[in-house]
Amino acid sequence: MSRALHKLTAQTAKAAAPGKYSDGGGLWLHKRPDGGAQWVLRVSIHGRRREMGLGAFPDISLKGARESAEKWRALVREGLDPIKERDRQRRDSARKLHLLNDVALDAFESRKAELKGDGKAGRWFTPLELHVLPKLGKVPVGDIDQKDIRDTLSPIWHTKADTARKAMNRLAICLRHAAALGLDVDLQATEKARALLGKQRHKATNIPALPWKDVPDFYQSLDGGSVTELALRLLILTAVRSYPLRHIHESQIEDGIWTIPAEAMKGRVGATTDFRVPLSSEALAVIQEARKFARDGFLFSGVRRGVISDMTMSKFMERRGMDERPHGFRSSFRDWTAEATKTPREVAEMCLGHVSGSKVERAYRRTDFMEQRKVLMARWSSFASSPRDGVVSQFSGAAAR
Prior knowledge:
Elements: H1 10-15, E1 19-24, E2 27-31, E3 37-45, E4 48-56, H2 62-77, H3 82-96, H4 100-111, H5 126-131, H6 133-136, H7 146-153, H8 161-180, H9 189-197, H10 215-221, H11 227-238, H12 242-246, E5 253-254, E6 257-260, E7 275-278, H13 281-290, H14 310-319, H15 328-340, H16 345-351, H17 359-364, H18 370-385
Antiparallel strand pairs: 1-2, 2-3, 3-4, 5-6, 6-7
Helix pairs in contact: 4-8, 7-9, 11-13
């Protein structure tokens, strides 16, 4: 290198008094009266003079300052502003430091409004928390690739297929969330991981449902008057999901209509749409009986606090030796409407709170078929709650209520 360019030596830089000393090529050493010192690079870019700090002396040696100065001068020769370029590189580095743990929590937080009970039950986050974050939580999200995902989910890909599928889907949401934050991530990583993992051997099975012709026998067997039995009776009569049924509150019932808040519904169009359920005379009678167990307005309160759990009803049926589960009564109702009535599909689906028809069709159809559903649910209630003459119930003498 030319001595005209490299004017300073390590010894003169160290011994220099307070002042400004040029090393040539725009590199300067600024020494302050308080003993501190720093390197500064002066360049001209697009007609502007720029001063760029290169670090403190002697932490940054003369040799290190020269190497840094040459790197940034090379960018100036390419027409780039070295200060803006350094800021961009720092932002990129900071982005890569975002760990999956942080991104996943932020993604969960932003989606709480879409989830039942603000996701407090933990079902959205649990697949990530149990099966992804223990291995990848401390990895910068920008570094995660399909091999990382494959290695993480391969132990449960076939043995816990549904859980693995949910974990993969949640992870894909996290990657999209990271991209929306401006982080550099591979949005195809989960799809690539699916290709590496292959098709799952485990096949999803539907929740076991009681055949609709057996529903009256089971309903008649729920004669113990316990909270669990009353909850099962109302679940059958209304064909709703377990969550809103377990959280039914006095304030939601008025003039024979049960209005379920939008946040308690799954699969409804629009997060602000409440769902109205017509209550038959039998359903109102069950509600009246359940009021003696109510606590804080909740009809089906738990033993110690809150409301009864989803497992309470499932365990009740399990103790009776049944494979069927509470959620299956929705299927029982739907099969009954298809096989024993001439109910239009859109009315039957509306009874279940399902989305029916195309997006355009739904935009023009504003009715919830309340009058038709009142008639249908009254028929279902009459069928479900009436004993079958001359038939010996398979549930007679059933154990433990």
